[in-house]
Structures are given as structure tokens and as C-alpha cells.
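Section 3.1: Structural characterization of target chains.
Under the original work plan, the team committed to producing a structural model for every single-chain target entering the pipeline before any wet-lab resources were allocated. The record below documents one such target. The sequence was received from the expression subgroup and is listed exactly as submitted; it comprises 292 residues.
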Amino acid sequence: MFSGSIVAIVTPFKNGKVDEDAFRKLIEFQIENGTSGIVPCGTTGESATLSFEEHKRVIKICVEAVKKRVPVIAGAGANNTKEAIELTRFAKEAGADATLQVVPYYNKPTQEGLYLHFSTIAKEVPLPQVLYNIPGRTGVNMLPETVARLAELKEIVAIKEASGNLSQMAEIINLAGDKITLLSGDDNLTLPILSIGGKGVISVIANIVPRETAEMIKMWEKGDVEGARKMFFKLLPLCKAMFYETNPIPVKTALSLMGKISGELRLPLCPMRPENLEKLKNVLKQYNLIYK
């Protein structure tokens, strides 16, 4: 159902509030440059520091601005199943095409708990779900057997995999590749994931280079493996630069340097260290994204 270059879009802030005008402009920038879908209120969108009201407002703005030109996959995950259901219900009412549901963080559920969490959301709010496995942030790894079990539910349509474990991702394809779409959750691994049967990426770097990220996926889809490989390696230093510090600090800083947003972050995220900022600027200059 979902494929291509899907951006995990940032949430711009200004004077402590969501900068709605800048957010709308970012959405237009993405669509104009070939992005296949938009994910508001994900990790890159600083969902952890958005109030419930802000979270819902960002989803609403995104749906209204996109106007069905591409799918909107609204971040609606939580480590409290009742809260995830509430956010999912709002996303459905707002007109989102699907939700992104992260593995519950901090409380470390068992594999059975994970199954019950996602299946309960699906039962309560019938809307396509993209699962999100990122054990480095959540403290729990969702195993391929659990993903395959969830893939039996018609609402579970895809998984954003950010475990970094290609063997695990291959096992998901092996067990349930006919029932669930595998999406890369790590720009550094997009091409390897495509090679084992993945269909796209939910991307951080697409925030700043949407056209190039989309072109890489399209080249792969057309069978231009060499072209996709060249684009992947061209973008790789930029991918690494987006993680000089915790995401989304570098990507918001890059967008600020490009003049698209203020770059404002919310604590506990803070501005980049000067030495990392200089490294980031040097990489952005190499890609002609900034000039001074």
C-alpha cells in the first residue's frame, strides 16, 4: 500500500509554538520534489515533546495541506495503548490514510504484549497501520514471528524497520512478505533493504534532499540498479551527517541553515555542539544545499 520515498517530516517551532506556515511550506516542498508520502508526528517530528493538542493539530494541518495528493501516515503511537487508540481515532477522523505505530517504549512489553497492543488498536480503530520497530529507542525488539502474526490482520499493511538487522528484515520477508510491506527506517540501509525485498524508506534525509531520495527509489523500481547504487553512495555522507547528534537535531539545523525553518528544538533536545555544527555545514556545502 505504501512505497517509495516517504518523509518523516520535522515539526518546525517558532517562539515555543508550532510554526504552521513553515510546516505547510515544508509539505509543498516535499510534494513538489516527488515524495511519495508524508509522516507527521514521528520521532523526527519530535512527537515526544508535542502536547496532545499540538499532536492533533499537526496531523490536521498535514492532512489539509496534502489534500490527498500523497498518503499521510500519521504518527499515532504511544507506550499506553489507550493513548495510541485515542490518537489513532483522531487521525482517522482527520482524514489520515494510515498511522505509524511505534513499538511501546520504556515499559518493555513481551512479544505477546506487542501483539495485543497493535491488534487492539486495529480492532478499536480500523485504519491501515504501519508498524515501527526501533529497538535502539524503545528498548524492545519486535521479532519477525510477531510481525508475521500481526500481518494476518488486514489493518497491518507495512513495517518501518529500524533495527539495523538485515537478517531479521529478511526473515520478515520470508515469513510474511506477501502480506506486509517492508520499509527502511534507516537512510543508511535503504539500498540493502530494497535488495532483500523492501519497497521504500521512511526517510530523515528526504527532509532536505527529497528529489534525490525519491529518484533513488524510482531508479531501483525501474531496474536501474547501478543508478540507484550510485545515488545511494552519493547520499551516504549526508545520511551519516544527519546522525552527528541525536535525530532530529542535525536535520532541523540543516533546514534552518537552508532558510526553511527556524531550527528551534524543544528540551531535552538542544542546539548542536559547535564542532558538529561546522562538520554539518561542510557536508551541506558539498551538496550545494548552503553556500556559506
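Residues 162 and 185 are 4 Å apart (CA to CA).
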